């Protein structure tokens, strides 16, 4: 499985132009896409502008809501800028906070044949997962959906956890994928505050990676620019 090609194809879907990231093009490119007019699965609103930045290129994917602003953006951005420079410029133009995420490609050379402390959970362990979830999300009151979500993860062996004295202290989750659900799966990791910086998240992450690959899928990782802990974890197992 070529994880780089699959990951590029996945984010090409996000941009809305098939396999655009597999091309050799560089510089600044603007792409109108109907994907910007939709609310992608797992999200609460559409992304009117989606910008993908790599070392030698910037790709702007835009929809109907900002089509009248594209000519102004094209005038101001005619060369590849750094992410920070681009954020500042877009913030000034849209008078809005720009979300900045970092995407990673799974490292195919990673050795997964190591002994781990974590394991997959089974359906009977929902009470322990519920207790864990409530600790992670103390303000979340509506949990009638949670058991179905847990069961779906368990059925695909995607709910991996690590226990300390029979208490679930670190656990993966499986965000819904808006595209290519049959071949990609992103990983989420949560750890109770008192059990962080013990290597538990790395352990659980590797357990989940094993299961994703067993399922014939490519593991994906995405995090915000200010989540340093998540970036450090990703850099152990993924390529930036």
Describe, in plain words, how this protein is organized in 3D.
The chain contains seven helices and eleven strands. By secondary structure, the protein is an alpha+beta fold. The protein folds into two domains: 3-99, no CATH class; 119-239, Gcn5-related N-acetyltransferase (GNAT) (Aminopeptidase). Strand 2 (49-54) and strand 3 form a beta hairpin. The model has no long low-confidence stretch (mean pLDDT 92).
Enumerate the strands of the largest sheet in spatial order, edge to edge or round the barrel: 8-10-4-11
CATH class of the largest domain: Alpha Beta
- Which fold name fills CATH's third level, the topology of the largest domain? Aminopeptidase
Order of helices and strands: HEEEHHEEHHEEEEHEHE
Approximate strand percentage: 15-25%
Structural class: alpha+beta
CATH architecture level-2 label of the largest domain: 3-Layer(aba) Sandwich
Strand tally:
11
Q: Share of helix among residues?
A: 25-40%
- CATH superfamily membership of the largest domain: Gcn5-related N-acetyltransferase (GNAT)
Total DSSP helices: 7
The low-confidence parts are none
Largest sheet: 4 strands, mixed
Rg: 19 Å
| Spatial gap, N to C terminus | 18 Å
Number of domains: 2
Please tell me the overall pLDDT.
92
């Amino acid at each position: 499985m070529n994880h780089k090609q699959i990951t590029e194809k996945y984010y090409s879907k996000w941009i809305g132009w098939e396999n655009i990231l597999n091309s050799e093009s560089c510089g600044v490119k603007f792409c109108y896409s109907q994907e910007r007019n939709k609310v992608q699965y797992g999200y609460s609103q559409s992304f009117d502008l989606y910008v993908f930045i790599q070392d030698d290129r910037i790709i702007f994917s835009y929809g109907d809501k900002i089509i009248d602003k594209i000519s102004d953006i094209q005038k101001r951005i005619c060369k590849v800028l750094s992410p920070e420079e681009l954020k500042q410029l877009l913030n000034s133009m849209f008078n809005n906070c720009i979300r900045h995420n970092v995407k990673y490609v799974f490292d195919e050379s990673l050795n997964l044949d190591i002994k781990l402390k974590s394991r997959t959970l089974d359906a009977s362990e929902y009470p322990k997962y519920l207790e864990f979830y409530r600790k992670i999300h103390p303000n979340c009151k509506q949990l009638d959906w949670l058991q179905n979500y847990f069961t779906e993860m368990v059925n695909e062996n995607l709910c991996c956890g690590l226990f300390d004295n029979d208490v679930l202290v670190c656990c993966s989750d499986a965000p819904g994928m808006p595209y290519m659900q049959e071949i990609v799966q992103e990983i989420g990791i949560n750890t109770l505050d008192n059990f962080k910086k013990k290597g538990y998240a790395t352990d659980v992450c590797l357990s989940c990676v094993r299961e994703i690959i067993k399922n014939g899928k490519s593991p994906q990782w995405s995090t915000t620019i200010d989540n340093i802990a998540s970036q450090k974890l990703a850099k152990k197992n993924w390529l930036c």
